[in-house]
Amino acid sequence: MILKFSIKDSYREFFILLFCFLCIFGINLTYEFKKYQNFKISKHLLLKNNIVLSNYYKINKNGKKYQVLKLKNSDFIFYTTSFKELNISQNDVINLRIITKNINFKDYLSKSFFVPSYDFNITKVKKEKAIIEYFLNQHHNEKIKEFYGALFFAKNISYELRNDVNYYGIAHLIAISGYHLGLLFTFCFFILAPLYAFFQKRYFPYRSLKLDLSIIAFIFLILYIFLIDFTPSYTRALCMAIFGFYLFSRDIKILSFKFLFLSIIFCISIVPKFLFSVGFLFSCLGVFYIYLYLHHFKNKFSNLTHIVLLNFWTFLAMIIPVLYFFPLLSFQQFLAIPLSVIFVIFYPLVLFLHLIFCGDLLDVYLLNFFEIKFYSINFSISFGYYILYLILSFISILHKNLALFVVSLGFIPFIFLI
Question: What pLDDT shows up at residue 65?
């Protein structure tokens, strides 16, 4: 039974571990509050070396045009605006002064907020890391650069590309998460296996190939998290993978909702800002609905049938949470189901092509792919309906028929497209 708790089969150990994670969370929260107090000392704070992640123009109610900037420094990401024409481009590094008066602790803890600013001063252009330049310089089209920058290095994407991705419902494939972690782990394992096996047979046959290669792969995945700056969805996946690997190596079952809960609490305890991260939320919900499917249907079908049904199940289950935050709805999003399967081949293929400096081979096809647009509408989900859906989802752990009903609710929004 999947719900059987696995951490030494004891609720006592579960609550001890939970208590430890909450203590870590409390320590980190105290530390962040001290930083917040220092941040608030000056009402007009000078911030240096802020990297421009994106900038775009909007028009206010009075018809006046202004510029919106998304900036990042070593402590947080923030948004600000300017009614002056600023000659600023992505990756520029600027100094500016911000007004901290209306920033509360919740805003600061989330590490992403809006703040008024003035006195802009461009200092230099940020140079990308060599490996990122190696990948992105293989492309000439800006949209394709953004696509691969997001796919491999969790870089920001423009509104245009985000809209293209939302039409297909494949944001989960672009945002680096557990899906990518699994593919990268497999890629590393099979690339290194022949070389390691050669030396193992001759010099250390007593070593376990699977164990050693798994450790090497995890070292690579840990180094990768620094390259992509602790992306929430990937951080969640990595913590779960390492925790799960440890339990699995001790013959302890990991397909447990309590294992998922502890992994989420652990991630939040070490990085409190994940409490406010939509990407982290989607990542956790995606894994929850996968566990929900396996909990009720693990032994019902063949592996091939599971692949098809699990993709369809997860797609429908995530429709309502995604629409609450991103209300674009189109029948085109059903293509996310086969595309999720195709991605298993596409991702390692384009990774290999970039490694041999042939990353631009598919650029024309990708541009044509993004140009396809079906009819769409904006379909907003109310907060009450969203919360009710989540509550029913958690209760459906106990009832298979309720789980089927909850997931089938994902069909309802598409009725409004007819």
Answer: 87
